[in-house]
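If your schedule permits, I should be very grateful for your opinion on a structural question. Please examine both parts with care and let me know of anything in them that strikes you as inconsistent. The record follows directly beneath this note:
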Amino acid sequence: MNITRRGFSAGAVAGLMAFGRPALAQQLPKLTVRTDFLPWGMHAGLHLGVVKGWFKEAGVDVEVSDGRGSGVTMQQVATGDVDIGWVQLGAMAVARGKGVPITSIAGLARRGDLGALVPKDSGMTKVKDLQGKKVAYTAGTSWGTLVDPFFTAGGISKDNVNLVSVDQTALLSIYLSGSVDATLTTYPFAKTTADRQRPSNGILLADVGLNIPSYGLICAQRTLDSRADVLSRFVPVVIRAWEYIYNDDKIDEAVQAMVKQRPNERLDLEIIRGQIVEYKPFMVTEATKGKRFGWQAEEDWKGTIDILEKTKSIPTGSKPADYYTNKFVPG
């Protein structure tokens, strides 16, 4: 059999291409991402990026796994068990202020989501309306050290509120039962569930000038130092996903992406969709208007540090640059 030079060359190229495709796929750098908890609405951007293939298009292989609370996820990021965490940035700030080497690389829900959940028909619209009311809270959550500042900033004393300390798992159920007039919680997360039984509004910490950022992406300092190139591929995709969800009105597609990524979970699609809708106003603060999702304002972080120092949640003396970077957020 005669093999011409042209035939040999064509065959060789075809063989190399066939070999090269899986080799190139295997060469994509991998990032492991852990969320704060079991699937809920604000995980949608990560799952959408995976399903749409946007991470791989950007040159990074992303694996998203579910967490067991922001605190646990932060520990796993700090120790290197996972590369990236999706966590409450207020909790991250407390850990960072105490010396844990983690940093926010994108702030997505930048307006504080902590607030009092109150019935719509109660007439309660401001902090002073909680005076004399029975209010549930959990001391061991993000609310613990913020109860006093919340009431003080709203013009009343904590002593004039009938505070009922309950286990975190009971915060919503005790409110829905009508046993309390309000509950201190993460307002947009809880509202969608509460509305089914007790339609509700919120009185927020941010409403009285106490803005502590909600959710975003974090990594360890060593990851920031050693994997900047991979992070510069990853972060813009998450931002793209959230802008697609909100600006292009693709909430339903985002919900379906979560279903596809978590087929064995019994997801309540109405609740997940509602959570995404409720968090939309929390994606922007006054200081971040006109900026891309993910961009964090020094002014916002100064305010957060001030609150955390005053409540002795962190030592004094830190500066905003210790807590965040915008270097991976596209202009």
